[in-house]
Amino acid sequence: MQTLFSVLLLISALGVIVSVLFQEGEEGGLGAIGGSAPESLFGSNRSTGKQAMLQRATVISAVVFIISTLVLAAR
Question: pTM for this one?
Answer without folding.
Answer: 0.71
